[in-house]
Specification:
alpha/beta, Rossmann fold, 7-stranded parallel β-sheet, 8 helices, 11 strands
Length: 306
């Protein structure tokens, strides 16, 4: 097991990043967070003596130097532009993200890191019937997935050229506090709280959701015990119909509320089955999910009231 005393994170204001920061605080690990000054989401970052912020948006990664007087151990690269809407198929934007991932590897080297951990996506696979494994063939169907796949492959080669270990984590569906308001979980919670009737497809898709706190624990363990060159698929390892997740959210937020299931047609390239095979992740790190979906939704509601 590699010792981790200090880490660096990009893209740390979402559900996984903020949870990983808290996970590191809980384990007395120093965290340097690269942020974009002026971003309103910076308020999501946990405040603690172990956490330091440095202004470094993605387009500044290539030129940033280590002026901290410290060396770091693991670089976690979560930042990515164009993750929603039409931007997911903006090829020029997604191509810039590949460049930023390579820039991040260079930063990891300059800041003394021994390991680079990048955040990939289930979008790298395209539509697959069956549990997603590290060696499942990849057929991405949009610019976002193509960019993630390319970033994972190119950053691995570049990291090895620089003498760094490289691990790529293909994330499925993570939910939790500080998730984007456009996500299914957060938008459903918000609409129910506002008295709206949320609209959905029939919800027949088999889906795999993992709580952000569990994902954060997985990322910490990957930084410590993950094997160089590995690809891990990160999810709960269990799938159930999306309709059941939606009904659980309703039962926690507003029991008895109406749900307009079936009012939205499936998209042209709708993924109908999404489940992670976390066997390799378990073998290498010992990771097992701990938070059930209902408890995770309750945690989100509690966080909203703080």
């Amino acid at each position: 097991m590699k010792e981790i005393k200090r880490i660096i994170i990009t893209g740390a204001t979402g559900s996984v990043g903020t949870a990983l920061i808290q996970e590191c605080i809980n384990h007395n690990i120093e965290v340097l967070v690269f942020v974009r000054d002026g971003s309103p989401r910076n308020t999501n970052i946990p405040k603690h003596p172990l956490v330091k912020l440095m202004d470094c948006p993605l387009d500044k990664l290539a030129g940033i130097e280590n002026t901290t007087g410290k060396e770091y151990d693991v670089f976690y690269h979560f930042a990515w532009e164009g993750t929603t809407g039409t931007a997911r198929n903006d090829m020029y934007l997604q191509n810039r993200n590949v460049q930023y991932a390579l820039d991040a590897v260079g930063v990891a080297k300059r800041f003394g890191c021994h390991t680079f951990v990048g955040a990939g996506s289930q979008a790298e696979y395209g539509r697959v019937e069956g549990a997603l494994q590290p060696d499942t063939p990849t057929f991405p169907e949009m610019g976002y997935g193509i960019g993630k796949l390319c970033a994972g492959q190119m950053s691995r080669e570049y990291a090895h050229q620089l003498g760094l270990e490289h691990i790529w984590v293909r994330i499925l569906s993570i939910y939790g506090p500080n998730d984007g308001l456009q996500s299914m979980v957060m938008s459903t919670i918000q609409k129910l709280q506002c008295g709206e009737v949320p609209q959905f497809t029939k919800g027949e898709q088999m889906w795999d959701y993992l709580y952000s706190g569990d994902a954060a624990r997985a990322f910490r363990m990957i930084g410590q015990q993950g094997k160089d060159g590995s690809i891990y698929v990160l999810g709960s390892g269990k799938a159930k119909p999306l309709k059941e997740y939606i009904e659980t959210i309703r039962d926690v937020v507003k029991p008895g509320a109406e749900l307009a299931l079936g009012s939205v047609p499936y998209g042209e390239k709708q993924v109908m089955y999404l489940c992670a095979d976390i066997g390799q992740l378990q073998n290498d790190t010992g990771f097992l999910p701990q938070v059930e979906f209902e408890k995770g939704i309750e945690n989100i509601i509690v966080q909203q009231k703080v």
